[in-house]
Amino acid sequence: MGSEDYPVIAVINGDLEVTGDFRGYGILDIRGSLLAGHGTVVWTGLMIVHGEETWISGTPDVIGSLWIKSDNVTLRVSGNPSILYSTEALSLHGNPGFYLDMSTWEEL
After folding, report:
1. Residue 58: domain span
2. Looking at the domain assignment, is residue 35 inside a domain?
3. Under 8 Å CB-to-CB from 34, ≥6 apart: which residues?
4. In total, how many domains does the chain have?
5. pLDDT digit string (tens) for 20-63?
6. What average pLDDT score do residues 88-94 get?
7. What is the pTM of this model?
8. Is residue 88 part of a domain?
9. What is the C-alpha to C-alpha distance for residues 73 and 70, in angstroms, rounded to an integer?
């Protein structure tokens, strides 16, 4: 979805289950749960999950920021995922257009 030069804004109206190779750039807004694993998943930019279940397994990479918006979330992480906060990835591919408070993050 998208490319480094042409990022997208994608809205998934429901759950997203990723079982194969998946790469994207931009803002990915998942209005349900996220089940990511069993393939190569790389998202550069902002990923927002609204559902109550987020399961990240295998070796997926989120380079930018992952926001989980549910008040009652079950988060399961297994394997070797990389969820890397990156101000550069956010500014290039996922800037949501409003102020982000970075005071609790450390960029690697």
Report:
1. 8-94
2. yes
3. 15, 16, 18, 47, 49, 51, 53, 54, 55, 56
4. 1
5. 888 899 889 999 988 876 677 888 988 888 888 888 777 778 88
6. 67
7. 0.75
8. yes
9. 6
